[in-house]
Batch of 2 targets.
Target 1
Amino acid sequence: MRQTLLGLALLTACGTDIQALPPDATATAKLTWFQDVAPVVSKHCMSCHQDGGIAPFALTAYEDARDNAQRMLVQIDKGAMPPYGALEEPDCTPRFGWVDDPRLSATEKKLLHDWVDQGAAKGIEAPVPQPPSTALSGITKTVTPTTGFAAKGDRDEFVCYVLDPQAANGAWITGLQVRPGIPDVVHHVVLTEIFAGTTQDQLVAAHPVGQPFDCSTIQQPGDLVVNIWTPGNQPMETPNDLAVPLLANAKLVMQIHYHPAGIAHAPDVTSVDLRTSLAWPKKMYFVGAFGNAIAAPQLLPDPDDRTSTPEFRIPANKADHTEHMRFTVGDLGNLTNVRLYSANPHMHLIGTHISGSIERPAPRGGDPQKECLANGNWNFDWQRTYIYNAPLDQLPSVQQGDIIDIQCKWDNTLENPFVQRALADQGLNAPIDIALGEGGSTDEMCLEIFGIAVDAPPPPAAMRVDQSLIPSKLVEAIR
Ligand code: HEC
């Protein structure tokens, strides 16, 4: 369409027949913001780069994009924008792509480069498409804190809420979305489910439902990681056969990372939209975490160990320290069709890279003997849930005796801006040795939390979603 219009313009301007133009005449047609570039920037950038968004400047107007054009290309070429940690590297490329992968295609990247090379023209003003909607459809329930939290605006803050989804008989979650109250401060949200029982009672006694509490130095409570959300994320929606069990009387714990936006804010009230169903699914979602090995045999020796006994220690001022762990999957009981559905890599502030792969004794069905499960640059600010883009019956399978191999890398030098951040948090001015730990900003972790699809047991007469559903063998096998 655009080319036709330009063709006509040329025709009028030169008073000549289009046939008489040199064959590459249309190649001189300039790409423009409104006709070519804005739709791409809207799709990939504007959800954050808009007024009131998490990004520090907007990219919604032509002038914004023109003035930031070179910076945009630099960030896109580095793979830093849009922020997305998944990597495909020669030694570790997962077999499937990811659901809702926000990265630009090669064609889109080239389009942006060509536009800049051609002078970043404005074009004919036209409506700019809205960024893709992130709303969840079919919401059945929204859980909201009763008291908001006013972020100080000058530092990172980690605040948790216990939320009550009021599911006395339990339900099945098939969709979930986080709705930030003040989008420019809500940097990421981790949602866990905590089952009914003593631990939940103690938590609620200490932290009443709906009230914010500081969780910067504790590990987030919960039995099951349901989702990790970052700004601009599409809603989590499970495929037809799969659902996340919301057990009877379970609570949700929402951890919010508030980002320093430079100014103090009115209280933020972030809610969680849920789509629940009472229909009994064929498959249910559970989680299994591998990592955080503190000793041999799971923790392997590394060149920075001080003795021949492997230790999880990231030496001060070491720019490229690696810890390598291997876990053998134990007895999964009567679960026969255990498949990995998603991956949540998890490290703390100073991590730079995390990868996980599986080694099976032999190829099995459609599964190769060895495959990369997840691989990426770690950035604490941009953690998220990665969901395999593949049918459930083709997802990577796991059985007893398989080996899960996890490797994490850290940069513990002042070159790493996150080291500076961690040190500032602690009032320190030089890097220190870092060990495995659960809380403070100078503890580290190396964990792959996999979302796992397992066959759901047949529906009980009462259709109650309760603790009898927990695949206890699976939980043991991966501890
Ligand atoms: C998920 C939210 C999000 C999306 C999507 C996103 N950005 Fe950003 N962008 C940010 C944030 C937040 C920052 C501030 C730096 C940081 O926190 O990493 C930023 C910073 C930048 C910067 C400045 C970086 C620097 O150090 O100079 C550029 C340029 C940029 N983004 C371009 C883009 C472009 C181009 C796209 C789309 C292709 C995009 N961003 C998509 C959130 C986002």
Note: The CA atoms of residues 243 and 284 lie 5 Å apart.
Target 2
Amino acid sequence: MKKSLMIGLMVAALVCAFALPSVIAGNAPAADMVLKAPDGKMKKTPVPFPHKKHEGLADCLVCHHKAADKNAIKGCASEGCHTDNSKAAKREATGFYQAWHNKKVKNSCMGCHKAEKKGPKGCKCHPKKK
Ligand code: HEC
Ligand code: HEC
């Protein structure tokens, strides 16, 4: 085998070994998350969210309802989504608050827990302040 081909193959193997897992992991959600307001302003404490556990409870795109597919998932407070954390937008479907608290839709935390009669209700998702 030519020396240049050998080196080329070795470089390719190295790229695969190191770059590929990070590409795959790049879109892999963390098993456990802590949800906070994008501007850091919230009256209650940040909410622990066992993401992994929920993956078996609903299809990805039930919660990530604006994503075209599983590989195009972005955070809930992404541009054009639930960005507005102001008091005025608290009751708007596009408000940050409603993403988690809207009781009328099954893709919000409270809406699904209410519909399924499972999971924490009320303010229990927010741990007590220490
Ligand atoms: C029960 C609802 C729910 C289900 C089902 C769900 N997710 Fe999520 N996922 C969330 C929430 C909530 C977040 C946190 C979003 C945030 O911080 O704005 C999140 C975050 C993510 C993120 C990180 C997004 C970012 O850029 O911040 C990815 C990637 C993701 N989920 C992929 C998936 C995939 C893939 C599936 C299916 C196997 C899935 N999710 C199923 C609710 C869900
Ligand atoms: C599509 C439905 C659905 C949505 C949306 C959903 N959940 Fe749940 N969640 C469930 C179900 C069902 C359970 C009960 C699981 C069980 O008992 O095994 C649950 C359980 C939980 C639990 C308890 C886990 C445990 O270990 O006992 C927490 C905490 C939780 N959810 C937080 C959240 C938060 C925060 C959100 C919003 C970001 C959310 N959930 C959105 C369906 C949902």
Note: The CA atoms of residues 65 and 101 lie 16 Å apart.
